[in-house]
């Protein structure tokens, strides 16, 4: 018994013979590049040298908001400021409050 695999697929190596076949015309492979940042400090330094645009460094707002909540009025990070959002919350009164 032989194992059939396409040319561009990894062939299993389990001691059996492997028969490679040409993929059918309707089967295509599309390669799309995707960047993985392995060294953030090096990327920041490349931005500082104007080798890449500033847009590659997107701030992580949830982390900045967490720091602002932890530090309260002592929050101070260059290039950042705290803006206070106000949310009005209404609650339905209980029976005790209606009696007043």
Main traits of this protein?
100 residues, 3 helices, two-stranded parallel ribbon, alpha+beta, 24% helix, flat
How does this model look, in words?
This protein is an alpha+beta fold. It has helices at 40-48, 61-71, 95-98, and strands at residues 3-6, 18-21. The protein is 24% helix and 8% strand. Strands 1-2 form a two-stranded parallel ribbon.
Q: Globular, elongated, flat, extended or rod-shaped: what is the shape?
A: flat
Q: How many distinct beta strands?
A: 2
Helix share bin: 10-25%
Oligomer: single chain
Sheet having the most strands: 2 strands, parallel
Strand order of the largest sheet: 1-2
First and last CA, distance: 87 Å
Low-pLDDT windows of residues:
none
Q: Mean pLDDT across all residues, rounded?
A: 83
Task: Briefly characterize the structure.
The protein is α+β, with helices and mostly antiparallel strands. It contains three helices and two strands.
Question: Helices, strands, pairings?
Answer:
Layout: E1 3-6, E2 18-21, H1 40-48, H2 61-71, H3 95-98
Parallel strand pairs: 1-2
């Amino acid at each position: 018994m032989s194992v059939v695999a396409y040319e561009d697929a990894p062939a299993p190596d389990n001691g059996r013979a492997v028969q490679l076949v040409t993929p059918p015309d309707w089967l295509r492979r599309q390669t799309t590049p995707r960047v993985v940042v392995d060294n953030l400090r090096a990327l920041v330094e490349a931005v500082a040298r104007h080798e890449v645009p500033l847009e590659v460094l997107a701030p992580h707002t949830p982390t900045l908001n967490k720091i602002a909540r932890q530090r309260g009025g002592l929050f101070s990070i260059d290039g950042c400021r705290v803006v206070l959002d106000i949310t009005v919350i209404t609650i339905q009164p209980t029976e005790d409050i209606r009696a007043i």
